[in-house]
Amino acid sequence: METQKDSLIVLHNGFIVTVDPDSRVFRNGGLVVEGDRIKAIGQSPEILQQYSAVATEVVDLGGRILLPGFINTHVHTSQQLARGIADDVDLMTWLHGRIWPYESNMTEEDSYISTLLCGIELIRSGVTCFAEAGGQHVSGMARAVELLGIRACLTQSTMDSGQGLPLNWATLTTDYCIESQKELYKTYHNTADGRIRIWFGLRQIMNATDRLLLETRDAAKELRTGIHMHVAEIPYENQLVHDTRNVDGTVAYMEKIGLLNENLLAAHSVWVNESEISYLSKGDVKVSHCPAAAMRMLGFAPIKEMLDSGICVSLGTDGAPSNNRMSIVDEMYLASLINKGREAHTKGETNPTALPAETVLKMVTANGAKSVLWYSEIGSLETGKKADFIVVDPFKWTMVPLLDSISSLVYSMRTENIVSLMCNGRWVMKDRKIITVNEEEVLLLAQRASNDLLKRAGITIPNKMNMV
Questions:
Q1: Partner residues linked to 227 by β-bridges
Q2: 258: left (phi > 0), else alpha (psi -120 to 50), else beta?
Q3: Cβ-contact 274, 304 below 8 angstroms
Q4: What distance in Å separates the CA atoms of residue 129 and residue 71, rounded to the nearest whole number?
Q5: Nearest-5° angle of CA 174, CA 100, CA 285?
Q6: C-alpha count within 13 angstroms, C-beta hemisphere, residue 214
Q7: How far apart are CA 152 and CA 78, in angstroms?
Q8: Which residue ranges does the record assign to the Amidohydrolase-related domain (predicted)?
Q9: Alpha-carbon distance 253 to 303, whole Å?
Q10: Which residues of 264-297 are buried (b: 16+ CB within 10 A; e: fewer)?
Q11: pLDDT, tens digit (0-9, with 9 covering 90-100), for 151-166
């Protein structure tokens, strides 16, 4: 998909929320897109006067809200075909009995279709960029992302040890884990008009030797890219680190071996104490908070304490078997409510000011961009940055009356309020129609692929009702 280098698109008469360092909001704003970047932003009359005569497209927003595209910093795109296979089961059944058999039987085509299906849901929830949490067949993901038209940091699921691994994974060597990721970087990094970046993946410390941890650290530093890792998800993980490495917990051990750096994106990080939060802050580690998935299996993450310590916290959905809903809009709502409720639970008194709307909106925009190491180009609406943004129609039953626009975006907005999405200067969705892929065709392919994959994996979903 090539960028329209000669295009000049003018959007005017909109409520523009920039999420820039000054938190500017234009009540009657205009924005100009030239090629793949924002050329100008300001008051609508001035923008129209200067650019409308030479524009290739003029869009009257009619008072709708224009804001940066959302960034989902933790999503397993190759798990989308597994939506519903692991509901209401314990973690070990979830992992060893459902997810690993599913993933280990995937083909490259499965990954491609799964990523397309996931991408549709991401686009409809306003996501212009996502961080793959670690999945199968990055080549299939890359094909899908190029077609979808959004931005991604793609990561291979990487494990070289641990109990319960499927046979075809248990034989993978550390050398393979490192070299295969270097090859992916060489092949796909900065492709699709620069929309795809390749990161290194560490699935979790329970499935990584020390050599894999250290060589991943060094390889990512050498190639100047990121590392995506599940960190301190469950108490058992911390206990295992204590028993096998003689250090109290995952974060403390990672600090000891020099893995807590600014290019690390730590997912979940639920079971961390005060000193571990200090280690994360000191290392400038980024944390992806996935409230729905955490509530389902992990617990309450100390997000307010992390933010207070200066940690850059963003939002993710996790994968479909962990959440079922790939809507970052839902995660915004949940993040604020859950963390308000946690204050009352842990401190014995309510704190309605915990994670206010402004903070949550920043988590899915500016903080998201910083978390994926892309803030110089995305995450806010500023002159010179990439033209990644969404248009929200607030004049629907979900958001009327519109009294406080920022609060309404976090507490009232639904996915159906998001009507248009642009990434890299190209319309991906316009007037609720996704332009880049045939949505109906993808849905049919996905249902068929999911059925075939579960049959190959030998996964049977028990009936929860007495069907007659």
A1: 200, 264
A2: left
A3: no
A4: 5
A5: 60
A6: 6
A7: 13
A8: 65-428
A9: 21
A10: bbbbbbbbbbeebbebbbebebbbbbbbbbbebb
A11: 999 999 999 999 888 8
Q: What distance separates the 2 farthest-apart alpha carbons in the chain?
A: 70
Among 109, 87, 90, residue whose Cα is nearest residue 319 = 87
What sign does the dihedral 199-284-340-26 (CA atoms) show? negative
pLDDT tens, position by position, 241-300: 999 999 999 999 999 999 999 999 999 999 999 999 999 999 999 999 999 999 888 888
Query: In the numeric block, which tokens belong to residue 295?
Result: 């509530």
Residues 152/123, Cβ–Cβ less than 8 Å: no
Residue labelled with tokens 């999911």: 450
Cis peptide before 401 (omega within 30 of 0): yes
SS3 state of residue 287: strand
Token pair for 3: 């960028």
- CA angle (428 as vertex; 136, 36 as ends), nearest 5: 100
Which residues face 287 on adjacent strands? 266, 313
Residues constituting the chain: 468
Tokens of 273: 């104490």
